[in-house]
Structure formats: C-alpha cells, structure tokens
Amino acid sequence: MAKLSREDVLKLARLAKLELSDEEIKQFTTEISEILQYVEQLQAVDVSGLEPTSQATGLTNVIREDTVKSYGYEHEDLLKNVPAVEDGQIKVRRVL
Amino acid sequence: MSGWPAIADIATKVQSGELKAVDLVEQALKTIGEKKEYNAIIATTEARARERAKAIDTAKSGGRLAGVPFIAKDNFLIFGAETTAASNILKGFNAPYQATAIERLEAEGAICVAKANLDAFAHGASTENSDFMITKNPHDKTRVPGGSSGGSAAAVVLDMAPFALGTDTGGSIRQPASFTGCVGYKPTYGLVSRSGVVAMASSLDVIGPLTRTVEDAALVLDVMAGRDNLDSTTIERDAKGYINLGSSLKGKKVGIIREHMGEGLDPKIIEVVNEAVKKLEAAGAEITEISLPSLPLSLATYYIICPAEISSNLSRYDGQRFGYSYENAKDLNESYMQSRGRGFGKEAKRRIMIGTYVLSSGYYDAYYKKAQTVRTKLINEFNEVFKEVDFLVGPVAPTTAFKIGENINDPLKMYLSDVMTVAVNLVGIPAVSLRCGDIDGLPVGLQIMAPQRADYALLEAAKAIEGIL
User: Fold this and answer.
1) A35 is in which domain, residue-wise?
2) Of the N and C termini of chain A, which has fewer Cβ atoms inside 10 Å?
3) The domain that contains A14 carries what CATH number?
4) B115 is annotated as an active-site residue
5) Residues of chain A positioned with their CB less than 8 A from the CB of B313
6) Is residue B356 within 8 Å of B311, Cβ to Cβ?
7) B281, B364 in Cβ contact below 8 A?
8) What is the CATH number for B438?
9) Are A12 and B415 in contact (CB < 8 Å)?
C-alpha cells in the first residue's frame, strides 16, 4: 500500500522539476496516497499470458523519408515565443 | 432554440451567395458577446475571422464548409489568437503553425471565430481546473458544463457557432456533451491528426466535433479524418467517407453493458437510459445484455496510464523555449523548478506527480506496465463482445451536471466522473454522446460505442437513434 511521506513527495517533485508550496506538499501527500491506493486494485488482477498494449490500433514503426520540407515558417517565427534569445539562439541560465 | 441551420445547408447557401460569410461571422461574434457571462470563450479570433469571411465571399471559392463559423478548444494551435490550453504557463503563446485539423477545416472554407475554455491542459471534468475561469452550464449557471471540452460544449448549446472542436482523452468530448445536451463525437484513435494540438496523453488523445446534430458531426469528421504525415499514429480514412448516412436500426444488434447500468450510478439515469433502449427496440434493434468483466478496472487503469503520459508530455514546458519563464532564477535547475512550479496549476502538478511516481524506477512494472497489460485484457473483452453485437449502449456519466465547487476538493471523486467514458479511449474505439432525456431540467447523454474503424456505422446508428429519441 502506497502511503507517501513528505520526503517521498519532495523527492517526486525534484524528479518532476516542480517547486511546490508547503500547502501543496501537504495536500499532495494525502491526495496522491489516496489516488495510488485506488489504482492499486490492479495489482490483484491476473494478466498471465497477456502482453502490454501501448498502441491501441496496432500500428508499428510508421516511417517516412527524412527530407527537408518547408512548412512556410522561418527560423525567426519559431523563436518568437522563446523567453530569452541571443544571436538567433535560445539562451538558458548557467547549468553549474 | 437553434439559431443555426444544418452545416451542409449553410455551406450550400454561402456557395450560392444566398448567405454571406461575413454575416455569419458577425452573427457568431454577436452571440459570443451577448453570452459572455457563461465564460465559454477565452478569446475571439475576430480580426482573422472577418478577413477570411471577406475573402470567401469575394472569391466564391466555396468548399464543403464555406463560411461556416466554428469554435476551437483552446488547445488547438491556430493563427489569430494565443493558444493557452487555459493554462498560465502557456499564456502569451502565439502558434507559429496551425493544427492539421484546423488546416483541413479552413481548406473547406470553415472560419474559426473563437477559442473555447477548458480545464487547463484538458485535465478535468468540469472546466474548474481552467487557470482562467469556470464555464457555466447553459441550463443552470450554478452548475458545470462538464469537461474538459466544457467551453466547446457550452458554446454550441449557446448557439455561438454551428460547431466546436474538442479533444477527448478519457471522456472530454462526450461527458460535456452529456452535461449540456449536444452531440459529442469521439472518433477511432488516430482517425484525426493531432498535429498542432497540445498533447495530454498520447496513446489516448483524439480530436472530435461537438455539434447540434449527428449529420453535422459526420460532415466535420469527414473533412478532418485521415492520414497525416505530421502524426504517425493516424490511420486511413474509410473509403466511403463519413457522410451520406442511412438511418435504419432494423436488425442491428445492440448490447447493453451490464457493468454500466448499476453500482455508482444515479438511478434516475438508469431509468432515462432504459427508456431510450426501449425506443431502440421499438425501432427494430435487437437488444441483448452483455458483460465486460474488466470494465470496472478501466478507471484505475486510466489513472495510471494517463498521468504517466501527461508527466512525459508536460516535460516540454520547461521555461526555456516557450511559455512562462521565471525571471529571477540563478541557474538552469532553479529556472526549471520555478517556471514549472509557478506556471502549472494544481491539477497539472498533481498529475505530473502521479505520473512521475508510476514511471519511476522500482514502480514501473507494478503500476505502468501492469496497467498497460490490463489494457490488453480490456481490449480482448471488447473484441469478444463485438463478435456478438454491432454497438454497445449505456450512459455517458454517472450523474447529470454537478454544482460548481461540488467535487473540486476531492480529486478522486472528480475522476469518477470519467468512469463510463475512459474504457473507450483505452480500447481506441469510437463513441458518441446523444441527448436522450432530461432529469430536473438537466440533459442526460446516451453513449453509443462501436468497434475500431466502424465510425461510419456508428454515425449511421447515431443518426437513427437521434431520430427516435
């Protein structure tokens, strides 16, 4: 039975890159435990002999030629939504 | 009540010059303005809509949807307005390209006039998770319109446009259609390209129309359906298309789903659905009760697979390439943490957290892989049942439209609103919601399901059923 602790929630938030408020941490500790307990009913289900399904219509490896095609927009159009741009490139904060 | 003729008739009259696209666009914009209090619309695309209408009137170029105004859920990338997915993190985002579905509708002369409200990123069943506002149910302003395509459904019922587009990952077209009393069509998985639509859970997401009649839905689907190189999960369209529907139920085998007609359901809904089933029988359908033993597991299966895929899809909102970015971050990690922490609403965060948990090392097999295998079990059961019957029929939701605020503090209870609809997405089959009655002035939807790729047959049956309800 999944019963998450405050530390579990903090660890998940770090993995998911989410800064959470104290109130959210408290709330999620209870709520996510409840939701996990609900979905745990699957663990008792017998699925022997069955394979997992990730694609419901059964398509596999749909491939196409890797060619350059113009869709009518320019490099600058794509950069318009970027928070910080320098010399036509996306600028990010220092990594270390 | 409806201020709009059939979509095919509008287009014919625009082609002949009897109606003007500019007048249709003004009519839509006027209604949107008059009914602002319902919070169905996030923004209009009026400048672009007026330009397009003028061009269509001048060129007389026609098209099967010539001059037909429509409203897109705000998770479709479109020119002329921001695409926000009703989320703060995407506020201010102007799409550099349009969704394939929008391109195909525009190529036939349809004109987008506005973007509809939704639960942020389509996470929800009431529009209460919108980061901007709550849409009100057209039948009772104290109640929700359903969700996540609640703005689209309300807009159609409020006559803001002849049709709206929605997306359906676990019931997000059908449940709001049921709560507001319009037609909500969820196609076979992959029938409509999702290129240019904000991704939620990619193995479940589909696009579909919300309309006032089945024929309108069929025409809109016919324009959008088919393979698209920009979405490799798309499937071939049916050679005969999805229009020119017959309308007889004679000899059709209809299964009533036992698991959807009992526990956890408002008994009044069972009554209304049973009344509808009697009418199907009177119209010549052969009714049998069928059982899908794993159906009660579908909600738990869904609430593992769906958040898992959400946590992956929402990782792209990192504050670096587009969307909200926290200005005072010292380094990249803080920029990620703060941009996402401040930009995402509570439900998006909740689902990212659940998804991260079920995909994390040590839990992957027990949760995610197990859910994907139970999904196979469910698919097998549906395949078996569809050897016996042509269609399955049942309710869309366990209740009629609930009060604003009634479920918002209990996420699990909110999730239960999807209990009748999620299996369809897990199995990839088409389904439709039709209004089959009312309880205390609130609409009740009938859900009809068909096997994968049987969209034409399903629309035909839905048209017949619409005629007798």
Assistant:
1) 6-44
2) C
3) 1.10.20
4) no
5) none
6) yes
7) no
8) 3.90.1300.10
9) no
